[in-house]
Amino acid sequence: EMPLAEFDAELAGAIRDEERRQEDHVELIASENYASPLVMAIQNSVFTNKYAEGYPGKRYYSGCENVDVAERLATERVKALFDCDYANVQPHAGAQANAAVFLALTNPGDTVMGMNLAQGGHLTHGNPSNFSGRHYNIVPYGLDPETGLINYEEMERIALETRPKMLIGGFSAYSRRKDWARMRAIADKVGAIFWVDMAHVAGLVAAGEYPNPLPHAHVVTSTTHKTLRGPRGGIILAKGQGEDFYKKLNSAVFPGIQGGPLMHIIAAKAVAFKEALLPEFRTYQKQVVANARTMAAVLQQRGYKIVSGGTDNHMMLIDLSDKPYTGKDADTALSNAYITANKNSVPNDPRSPFVTSGIRIGTPAVTTRGFGIVECEQLAGWLCDVLDALELGASAEVASRVREQVVELCRRHPVYR
Ligand code: PLP
């Protein structure tokens, strides 16, 4: 067996550098997390070699008896986790789960209503450059510019006017609870399918820290690698919709948009779902929310605006639209201080999506590595120091001081080492 460093020094170097980066930088990208060592290890299993087109017990290849065990475990566990009666664990990622929902439940050209990407939606909810925006007539809904909250009256007005075939709940950047019952009522008024993409908050939902959309939605999708802390992947869930509906969803995934499922990832999903069913996972998610609240409070004390005025979940958007610098500038300055976040549009952002006037931060990753209230208070303070310096000067000095503090804090809370 030839070690990677000998066989491919370039790649081995990149992996080693990435290990160091993940250990020494603070990760505030709201969609990221650190999978457990077990979840990491299972992805390296021999299941990666197996073709298993079809579903457990009905495969197009022989030799599937062992991968069937893995897929059944993943399916049963995720159903228990979210209290539902249908699950498809095969989507390769969140975007594929979403593509399967479109394929199963709509026809190209249909009117579909989703949250405006510039106001917190996801690409697959109808962005013009995505398949969803190219093949469907998308009508966006968004936020009340005054409050930064979802404007349900406006959503209802648009729905009644445009009569969408499907209404999409879910988001990539929204720090409040969504009213699933209210959205279902709007969908029912116009006879639309109500689909929730809970990718960002799935871990919180599993732990009872965010409202579960399953009692309200016809169908729910998610990624497995964000707050849920599993391997990179997707799932589709539903409750009480009946076998015909579930068959449509299954055949949209395979043979609709995918070939062979990634059985090593499905096995890792099974392990992640088992972890998420443990009491420790609830404790973790409670801490994620408490840490986000703490960071929001520090930012506000220091004079920074949070879109919607705070957070009820794992993330928040810092509104920099009244600052002399951009979201991109802030992103770069924070990176220099080893704080990884991402620039993000704020509602009615005057700047382009490449520049933006906001920064999105989230606490799932730092909480996994053991940061609590004390560490998050410190961290939010340093983040403000870096942003302050963009206005007041001495950026380089502040960056180097914060970088040292960040590395020291990170070393006290190792991820894998
Ligand atoms: N849905 C939402 C709400 C997301 O935020 C994301 C990822 O950012 C996705 C779907 C897409 O997931 P993936 O990157 O796994 O395709």
Explain this structure.
With 417 residues, this protein is α/β, with parallel strands linked by helices. Helix content is 46%, strand content 13%. The two termini are 24 Å apart.
Offer a few descriptive terms.
single chain, 417 residues, alpha/beta, seven-stranded mixed beta sheet, four-stranded antiparallel beta sheet, 16 helices, 15 strands, 13% strand, globular, binds pyridoxal-5'-phosphate
Helix-strand layout with pairing:
Blueprint: H1 4-7, H2 9-24, E1 26-27, H3 37-42, E2 54-55, E3 58-59, H4 65-82, E4 86-88, H5 94-105, E5 111-115, H6 131-135, E6 137-141, H7 152-162, E7 166-170, H8 180-189, E8 193-197, H9 202-206, E9 219-223, E10 234-238, H10 243-257, H11 263-276, H12 279-301, E11 305-306, E12 315-319, H13 327-336, E13 339-340, E14 342-343, E15 358-362, H14 364-368, H15 373-392, H16 395-412
Parallel strand pairs: 1-13, 5-6, 5-7, 7-8, 8-9
Antiparallel strand pairs: 2-3, 4-10, 9-10, 11-12, 12-15, 14-15
Pyridoxal-5'-phosphate binds at residues 31, 93-95, 98, 122, 124, 170-172, 197, 199-200, 223, 234.
Give the percentage of residues in beta strands: 5-15%
The oligomeric state of the chains shown is single chain
Class computed from helices, strands and strand pairing: alpha/beta
Put simply, the count of helices is 16
Q: Which sheet architecture does the biggest sheet show?
A: 7 strands, mixed
- Gyration radius, to the nearest Å? 22 Å
Structure ligands: pyridoxal-5'-phosphate
Global morphology: globular
For the largest beta sheet, what order do the strands appear in spatially? 4-10-9-8-7-5-6
